[in-house]
Every structure is written in C-alpha cells, then in structure tokens.
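wait is this the right file?? whatever heres the structure
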C-alpha cells in the first residue's frame, strides 16, 4: 500500500515530535514535562508493576534542567508527594501549571506528557532519545567528563 506523505498530519509523521522536542530544548535549554502518577510511576492496582525506566528518565530530564509536573487524578495529594519523595522521583509541582502562559487556561502546558493512557511508549522513546542527544556525561561526582 502506498501512502502519500503529503497527506499525513504533521505530528503523525515519524520523528516529527522528537524534532520538535529537540528544537524546543535547543532554543530554551529546558522543557516542561508532565507525567501521570497512577500507572506511570505508581502501581495503583498493586500488581507488582515497576516503573524504573520512566523514573530513570525523569531523573535524567531533571538533570537537564527540565521542569517536571506530576498530573494526577489522585485525591490524596499528600500521599502522592510523599511517594514521589520517598522514591526519588523528581517533581516541581503536582497538578499545577508548569509554565505561566500569561493567560488563563484549563489545559496545562507540557512539551510532552508521560501517561500510560496517552502514548507512553512513543513519548518515553522520544524523551529518552532527547536525553541521549543532550545529556552531558559526568563522573561519579557530577563533574563533566
């Protein structure tokens, strides 16, 4: 089957979302990354699921000066904050705007959203590639190699 790439919506084109993240990080030296709590960094259904890859990615993004906002439907935000801290999951806010747009909006602004119900695999892979491209290798003391 032939697909005419001129008819593909812009962000359905392979690699386009990664290119956008690279361009924004290059321009601003930071990104605002939203991440879901249940099913993304926390085992809500208590099935024994682990989220180490996503947590490692969040730690790498924080080292790259990215702003990380946990977005959750959990009603016990004290529990969420305690869990994030106890598990060394970096965050700059919970259910809050990551960037002040200068106007009121119910929609939070994120450069990308890590969410088990919203294309987690592609966003994870794009952000992991961004880290690979930009993260400066450091020694065990955090000094650039």
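ok assuming it is, sequence goes like this
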């Amino acid at each position: 089957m032939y697909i005419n790439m001129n008819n593909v919506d812009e962000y359905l084109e392979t690699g386009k979302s990664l290119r956008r993240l690279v361009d924004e990080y290059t321009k601003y030296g930071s990104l605002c990354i939203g991440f879901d709590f249940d099913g993304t960094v926390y085992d809500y259904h208590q099935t024994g699921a682990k989220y180490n890859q996503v947590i490692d990615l969040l730690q790498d993004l924080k080292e790259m000066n990215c702003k990380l906002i946990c977005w959750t439907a959990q009603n016990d935000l004290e529990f969420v904050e305690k869990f994030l801290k106890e598990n060394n999951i970096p965050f700059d806010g919970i259910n809050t705007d990551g960037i002040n747009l200068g106007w009121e909006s119910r929609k939070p602004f994120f450069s990308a959203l890590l969410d088990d119900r919203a294309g987690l695999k592609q966003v994870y892979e794009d952000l992991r590639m961004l880290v690979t491209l930009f993260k400066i290798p450091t020694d065990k003391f955090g000094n650039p190699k």
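Residues 120-134 form the longest helix (15 residues). so i think its the right one actually
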